[in-house]
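Quick note —
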Amino acid sequence: MPGFVLSRGALKLGPEPVRKTLSDRDGAFFAVQAGDLEAVTSAPRSHGMGSVTIVTRSGYFFGYGDRKRPVSDQPTDVTPEGIFDWCERSFFRVCGAYSEPNRIILTTDALAGCPLFYAFRRDGSPVVSTEAKALLPYLSALNRLRRDRRLRAEDTIFDQIRRVPAGVALTLERHRDRWRETSTTAPTKPAPVRGVASLRGAAQIVWSKLATIVREMSVGHDEMAVSLSGGVDSSSVAALARPHVTRLMTFTVGTRFADEFQQAREVAAFLRTDHHELTFSRDDLENLLPDLIRCYETYDPLLLKIHAPLAFLCKTTAGYVATLLTGYGADLLFAGAMRALRSTTRMEKILTRRMFAATCFNELGPSFADRHGITVRHPFWSAEMLRVATEIPMRLKLSGGVNKLVLRAAAGGALPPCVAWRRKVGIHNGSGMDSLFAHLLGTWDEGQQKAILRQMAERVLLHQLGETARQRRSHASPAYLAA
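Predicted structure written out below.
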């Protein structure tokens, strides 16, 4: 699995055991001096998705995320706070666990771009992983998924497994051989963004910030790929990425029921990209669906329909594409899927709730793409863009029946008007995912679809892991498992 599993008791603290355990897995080690502390750091050989390990005299840190360049940058402050700050600067998205003999601190980025999960074993000791299902073999019961109800920020679809809420530092401590949650530290509220009260000013800030993010995500690449629908979100990302690479590949996914091939073709021709069109068939979905449920750890029909085109793209282009940019997240930030209401306050609350929900369902997690050797980056779904978007008033996001007004105004200078102001079409609608799922599952009723997918999830996530769990419990638990 991509990422790591951290279990207590099988690994001693100190550089030498960790050096011996990880030397064949993570690449080169770096020695770090910080006052009277010494740390040994293992980092991925290049930028992109990978694991990082930092060992100090008081504890060790395991992290997993999308590393920025330059990869030679190492933390100089190896306290937990210093390491977390370094992760925020050095990764586009990241999660991590800092472990001491009687304390573990768990953290994720502001949008839970790399989810982190934890549970307590039968003996009460904690176990932590970047994938919830990887914890199942360590638990006493594997017989059911959580009942279908509204999930809280810390809930997963598994009864005994919890997620670390987005942007917090959660502490687990041991008292008299008993582990428990003792504190949750919320992230510091960023300084307000100025100049977003007018449409012109907000549009300039949005485009400038998006350009900076895309440029950072393009550093070190001669070629990149963009998932292109022909709408304003993905077209903006492609337009901003084009000057930074020698070759920009664009891909559009469609089905026999619906596609956006013509719209994407027009944008690709305008930007002079190396464009490809992929047709997603019923057989493709049937083969993909178990892996989709396994990686995203959900049986929700809407989420799976949103995930399916990108997952199919990653599976199809594995070995051909290394880094893929998307327009995902723009709808959540700029009210792309909302309808106008009389109360702007109510609209703000609904949009905030939807953004929060996206951090709770692995909606933009890296698991599937990383399993296929592809680093997927979402420029819109980043802490910097979130900070800007949350300061922009609703009247600049949705007005006169126009969704994503401020983004469309921002893109107007770089894209043809027919692209910048193209009517919003949901990704699962434009690519025909609704029809494809209905065709495969034999029903249009979402409740029936959910029941069928839940049965599949129980088979994929629970029954197939049962034998692995029984084998795992009969052996010593590893402290660290990396891809």
